[in-house]
Fold these 2 entries.
Entry 1:
Amino acid sequence: MKEIFLCKYGEIALKGANRASFEALLCRELKYRLSGIGDFDIIRAQSTIRIEPREDYDAAVLDAAYRVASTTFGIIAICRCGVAEKNFDDIKAKAVEYLADALGAARTFKVETKRADKTFPMDSGQVSAQLGAAILSAFPHLRVNVHTPDVVVKCEIRERAAYISAGQEKAAGGMPVGSNGKGMLLLSGGIDSPVAGYMMAKRGVKLEAVYFEAFPYTSIQAREKVIELARIVSAWAGSIKLHVVSVTKIQEELSRACCEDYFTLLLRRYMMAIAEKIALANECGALITGESMGQVASQTMQALAVTDNAVNMPVFRPCIGLDKEEIVTIARKVGSFETSILPYEDCCTVFTPRHPKTRPEIPKVIAEEQKLDFDALVEEALATDEVIYVKAEFTV
Ligand code: ATP
Ligand code: MG
């Protein structure tokens, strides 16, 4: 039987004058993401987007298309629907056939009908009642329960056809990627920064990323892990241009010339300054990092103030108010957790101070920083920038 997906969008339905451009962006994004899976029509109609296969695909292809649609930001819910002709006999027959698995496993159900096409001869109450009766006679074990049914059978009668489903599933939510500018994600191999990237992409921010390595103190596996994390995030956020920048020289100079207690803070300031320069050169309007308030010494309020003081760009920290456990829950959903916990060292842990400053004062940090030629070291690091295009792959 012919199957389609009805995608409902959330917030962008509320955008007045800009709505059409948000919808167009979302459709373009869907079209692109589905192109590796099959030939699909993307049709905008009545505050939904319909994804219609143009060929008879098997379940594996449709499952893959469904997965892709449900990881596309801007869509809040998706109904997988069987398609019926707009006459009640066909609606009845297709409902019984298409919903056989869902109804077979349920004990109670109810029918909800939405009649967008007001020329259809039955009203929605009549459709619900008669479809309910047909389902009861086809599945005699079922009972109707209008308050807490196991399955809500939805029947939407629209312009071109009637669509039948066992209800909608929650999708990715958020806003279409690219609708809110571009941000530079400081992507480490940890748990938090991939989650931070995911959260900003969810709000429509396109991502570019920078990873700071300290080869040979950090390994090639550590770099590969970060590339893999970028790949995982790209399934949600789209392709990511990843910059790999060496901070080996900076770390060596810091440990040679500066007070150990300030190592992490100073390195963080270098990272921010370098990231800001790359961001400016690549039309990014903000930096994105994965800090969470108080998680470690370099994430106290005073330490974050020291970090921010190194740049002028806004710094977004979407994990700031989350507990580790909450971040882990999101990391599992994103699919990054198992990769993040692989045990490869991060460049920050190579020269970790024994007694890091938890309440640093900016003038003291700057005095320490002035023992080195900050700008020259930033420029030297920028010269090592190696770009890796992490292409989002959407396949069956
Ligand atoms: P994460 O799990 O994201 O590594 P974390 O809790 O380990 O975070 P820190 O190591 O203190 O935190 O780093 C704070 C933030 O600084 C990270 O979330 C990330 O955005 C950025 N960062 C840290 N190390 C690197 C790195 N090697 N390359 C790029 N960004 C980094
Ligand atoms: Mg880290």
Entry 2:
Amino acid sequence: MEIQAPRGTYDILPPESRKWQYIERVIKETAERFGYSEVRFPIFEHTELFERGVGDTTDIVTKEMYTFIDKGGRSVTLRPEGTASCTRALIEHSIYSGPLPVKWYYNGPMFRYDRPAAGRYRQFHQFGVELFGSNNPYADVEVIQLLVKILENLGLKDYELHLNSVGCPQCRERYREKLVEHITPVKDQLCPDCQSRYAKNPLRVIDCKNPGCLEAIVGFPVLYDSLCDDCRQHYNTVQEGLTGQGIAYLHDNQLVRGLDYYTNTAFEIHLPQFGAASAVGGGGRYNGLVRFCGGPDLPGIGFAIGMERLLSAVERTGIDWEKDDLQVFVLVPDEHNRNIGLEICNILREAGVRTDQDYNGRSMKAQMKQANKRGARLVVIVGEDELAAGQFTIRDMVHKTQLTVPKEALLDRVKEILQ
Ligand code: HAM
């Protein structure tokens, strides 16, 4: 039997991995400039954390978690998202008693058992940020600005920012009653999932992916009309802040997010060209989560980006990935000079230049082809005649020119050309 990767998972092989490193680097640099620091937390947690944190009526908890009993008889779950784990870590290490706000970012695999489709995997990757300890609407604006900046720094322009407020628990209770009243007469037209959860969590119906459910509840009351004065004020200030920063958004009454911890501001970034998997990132405020998980009454806000979706969007911009590939290929025509080739490789590598040579005994022509294939910008030729004269030939693969330099000048000339 041939063993393959499990359904909904995949390998990231070179040169694909370079693309990942590139987008991860741009994102991390952008987040660091906004004052965020990296946090790393376990790939699995006690199941209870997600049941409580994410919410026991959500799709994630009811259908999508990779949960198993470990050898010690404890129920553990592969993390389906990062906000609950950050909250747990914040409380466990009493980070909240230090300077506020706390600004964290994370990057890594998440796991959800769902039907694999375009842009939907069972193991996927998220880059996320969480800001704990401020309820200032301008913190919301800054978090959204970071999300937008990340897309822009990766060359993405055709995105839509959707924005809504899901209010505080009091607003939502008022809204729940109105919504249940609206849905009850048409409940038989809903999908089985919505029929069983609408009374407890009718917001899930608005969020249902089944188009029949939305048709059945057409004309549903909007959340904004149920917001209390404080929540309305908060939302209006966020909108003013976004406008002030020149960030365009769409107020979206249907945006309620699929996780239970959200309060007030909720947002998603869509790339409409991706159809069903158009949400490249999403997030919002979660002012009750820290307390709900056993910590102090500390507000929070954050977002996560789906890295697979982001990468395919960046790919579609026609980006030239090669600029990030091999920089120098050291070509050694005569096998007995291989050691000198390695010495040149090391000189360049020490200076931070991505360098490689051939180890398969290829002919000079085949090595040149290899250099081309690898996307090398320059080829340094370690030829017999040049060596006798203490020199090396540098071939510029883009401009198709070459020059000969003495060994002492090699590194400086290579760096000069690469710049
Ligand atoms: P989420 O909306 O569940 O939010 O996920 C964020 C992003 O992860 C989605 O917009 C999507 O791009 C990507 N994603 C989700 N599921 C999959 C999948 N099965 N395959 C591929 N990509 C996927 C959260 O996870 C929240 N923790 C975000 C947050 C942080 N809210 C506040 N802080």
